[in-house]
Design a protein that fits this description.
Pfam families: DctP (PF03480). It comes from Vreelandella vilamensis. Keywords: Signal. By secondary structure, the chain is of the alpha/beta class. It contains 14 helices and eleven strands. A six-stranded mixed sheet has the order 7-6-8-5-9-11. α2 packs antiparallel against α11.
């Protein structure tokens, strides 16, 4: 064999070895992912949208096998399963984990504070994303917010609630610690029920009224079949965030390019989810009205009273937990900063104009 031939064969062998090594280094990861939402709740579409994008954009590096909530384990167990690495990822609503840390509550929703655009702004440009990483990071997880819905429907039931005076003595299904505290200050009583139980609770009179999600989700859950009255706006959840919990070891095993792809898919899903939800809510509102559900709206004076109660609850919670205080401090700082531009764009502003916010100085004293 000539020297030239030997060189060519050696080079060919090296090329094959290098290709094999490269193939091994970039072997496709296989993830199992579930969610807190069963197939019959429309919120699962947000999870599915992200998974479909990831599988398209990162298909050579990562494929996610998605299972609906309840098919692998109860929804209450997905946090522990993701933290320990039993599964690589799970979709969630952060408020479900407020019993572990109160800081999860404002990461999920606020009472009478943020709307959907505020969450988008705060997550993308005012430091919110980093706070999700800090809170979930304490539980061995990376978190990608990928869903935003605007304010929830409000209370539906067979007892009209036309003012906050009508809340006195009422048993209302309501999710969230801070939300329950505000309701109690207004004279109502919080009843905690799983989303799938709200329909029957209204139908049987177990609760006077209830809420679950946006009009689009609530209509498909059948609420117009059991409720005659609908009280708006949904002050108790002025907007909501959803996302994916990812086990930190599984995340770190991905190449940086793939991690970036997952983030891009999350950003795209976040924008899609807000528009999708608003379209669904619009169409559902028309259907609720066609079905004869009577809609009432709280007065500006009532909403101002709710804001006062909300501010008090935020300050109380801040002094109970430093991380809870840190999240709200960031949120309220955003509201004050953004007001410099927001309030000179009325009536074309995107965010909620508000001149009665909790005191940053009082929150800082609790941090």
């Amino acid at each position: 064999m000539t020297k030239m031939t030997k060189f060519a064969v050696t080079g060919l062998a090296a090329g094959i070895a290098l290709a094999a090594l490269s193939s091994t280094a970039h072997a496709q990861e296989q993830w199992t992912m579930t969610t807190t939402w069963p197939d019959n709740l429309d919120l699962i579409k947000i999870d599915q949208h992200w998974v479909e994008l990831v599988n398209k954009l990162a298909g050579d590096e990562l494929q996610i096998n998605f299972r609906a909530g309840g098919t692998l384990m109860p929804g209450t167990e997905v946090f522990d399963a993701t933290e320990t690495g039993a599964i690589q990822a799970s979709g969630d609503w952060p408020g479900y984990w407020a019993g572990r840390s109160p800081a999860f509550s404002p990461l999920a929703t606020t009472t009478s504070l943020f709307n959907g655009v505020d969450y988008l702004n705060w997550i993308q440009q005012w430091g919110g994303f980093d706070l999700y990483q800090e809170v979930y990071g304490d539980y061995n997880m990376v978190y990608l917010p990928y869903g935003i819905t605007n304010n929830e429907s409000g209370f539906m039931g067979n007892t009209p609630i036309e003012s906050i005076a009508d809340l006195e003595g009422k048993r209302l299904r309501l999710s969230g610690r801070d939300q329950g505290r505000v309701l109690e200050m207004l004279g109502g009583s919080q009843v905690t029920l799983a989303g799938g139980e709200v329909y029957q609770a209204i139908e049987r009179g177990v609760i006077d009224a209830g809420e679950f999600s946006t009009p689009g989700v609530d209509y498909k859950a059948g609420f117009s079949e059991v409720a005659d009255y609908w009280s708006t706006p949904g002050w108790h959840q002025s907007a909501s965030v959803f996302g994916v919990m990812i086990n930190k070891d599984a995340w770190n095993a991905l190449p940086e390019e793939t991690q970036e792809t997952l983030k891009i898919a999350a950003d795209a899903t976040m924008a899609w989810s807000l528009a999708w939800s608003e379209r669904e809510s619009t169409e559902a509102t028309v259907k609720f009205q066609e079905d004869g559900v009577e809609i009432s709206t709280l007065s500006a004076e009532d909403l101002a009273t709710i804001q006062d109660a909300t501010n008090e609850v935020i300050l109380r919670g801040a002094c109970e937990d430093p991380m809870h205080a840190k999240v709200y401090h960031s949120m309220i700082s955003y509201m004050e900063h953004y007001a410099n531009w927001r309030d000179v764009t009325v009536p074309f502003n995107m965010s909620r104009s508000i001149d009665n916010l909790p005191s940053l100085e009082e929150i800082e004293a609790c941090m």
